[in-house]
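Q: Structure tokens for this one, please.
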Amino acid sequence: MVLNDSRLLFDIPNLLIRSGVLGVRQFWKFSSISKDLLRVRDDPTSLGFGSVCSGFHLTRERGEVSDLLYDCLDADNAVAFRQVLALGGWIAQVPFLLHYALEQEAQKCVNVLTKMTVALVCRELSPHAVSVLTSESLDGLLKAGIVRPDSWIQLDDPGVRECTEQPLLTALIDARNFECAEMLLDAGARVDTVEWELKTDWVGRAPLHALVLQLGASGQPRCDVVERDGEVLRLSERERETGLSLLRRLAIASKASGCLDWETSVWMRKGWECTCAHAPGVSCSCKWSMIVSREETALGLACVARQADAVRILLEAGAETSRGRGEAQGYKQHNKLSLPMLAVARDWLSPQFDDARSAEVLAVLADWGVDLNKRGAASEVREEMMGHTPLSFACAFRLQKCVEVWADKGVNAKCALPPRALKGSDESVCLPLTEALASPGYGREALQSVVKSLLKAGADPNDAAYVKSFQNFQSQPQKVFCLTGGASPNGNAGVSTVTRPTKTPLLELLNEYTAVLFPVLPAAPFSVRNRLVRLLLEKGADPNLIGQTLLPGFQGSWAVAPLQMALFSAPKYITPTKEEKSEMAKLLIEHGAHCPFSSSAHQIATVPDATPAGPMFKASPLLMACETLDCDLLRLLCTRGGGRSECLGDREVRRHVSRA
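A: Here is the predicted structure, written as tokens:
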């Protein structure tokens, strides 16, 4: 038993290495602990140093390899240099190695490089020459050996690419010279090479990333990393077909090379203005105004660019849909938005919404089994996405076709963010149905279509949620529009009256002041409000249910009965006419409303000074009814509404109301 335990302890370091969790930098430190572990560096397989290759999809890890190579060159450590290069693949194709080794007089490392094929920059090809290169010229250059399939070009004006050296294949794609790019691929060009810059850990785009961005640039100009003097070049139908054909080949080759799911750093183009001190009219590299780069996979970029065809091709090639898109916060490998959220959101490369294109991408993702309700990591969420799932976000910003995709694909519209996604944050959960009804930009038919789609998809019309446009009140007044879907006409299902005041649909419809504070509730004509109130009452709304609302002329929220609200008026505010107030009060009394200060025995009821909804508003409906000068209303209130001359309410409130 002791022997087995000792073997287990001995195997722990090796098991840790083989798991691949250490990463390049930590592996290098860990393997220096003992001579036995130091020998593991000589093993380029997944059982040794090669285990770090599992993390190469992260730009950070590929950048660590670059740093390690330069450290070896600085120290002229040929042994370590050879061990890193033995990992093979793209590492041996990092540009500058021989150039830098010669400059550093690292003779031992120079000897290593002269015995292998290293990446070379073709000085004959400038970026402009690449853009006008013909297939005939490229064929001649390849046959003459002037250009190799893995050649690089040097960029004197990188724009937002932030690199000085670029693989020729990527340069041809940026120039939209797809025909020559296919020829270079036929000649054996590598697809696992990325843009590079000397002596930095910045890692740029692979050819696959570049092609996805160029395909998306016609619809989303920010995807184009090449400065074209402000001109947006749209791909012709033929160019697009050629580009998609090339994308299919690149995706398959990238899968075989293990780089299909690699992330890349992409800078966002913010503007065209020059920010340097150059004289006017002098060209410079500052025409791009940039912010911090974002890291994304080719599939993520295709979703951002809303390219459904590209998304389909990448998924067919086996692109990963969930890696790094969990709900965890603060961990580098899990800090990206989900693919559905990338497809619907506006930010970064896609500053405008595109309902139709986003819907096409969502449909493709759903067909491949992607969970359309996942948002991804909260650490990447921008302000307007706070508290949202992709569906609630689409509802809030009126992406009708996207909502229909969710319904058609059978996605649960009741889903909200899981509690763990909000742990430690100030986010409040947004629900799809609430967001749709609270969004002010819907037309009538569009709103009806969205609400029907959500109810069909299982949205609960009685769920309460925080609505940003309602100043984060936990509110349900808008649910009057979906009563036929099963909403509670009293609108307080699931609302905690202890932690949040209760709003009811009936009370909010009666309150004209609410429409001024919250534009979400339009100041509808009285006839419309009258019909809606009647609908609520017919559907079972309690005409005596006390709820919370704001009152003009009074500070804070108050607990108010519907009959009080119907007759309320205040100076300096737009209020219903006396005739309108009288008609609304009669409607309530006919459905059972009575004075909150009277009991069935026509005695003054004991009304508390405060309720969980706030202080009780003690203005007497009888007193307010006198202002209407409507004898029929007064008679009805006294005979059927419990109004008594003794029930005049609080003295201070009476004085305020009488001044109104």
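A few notes: The longest helix spans residues 237-257. Residues 1-54 form one domain.
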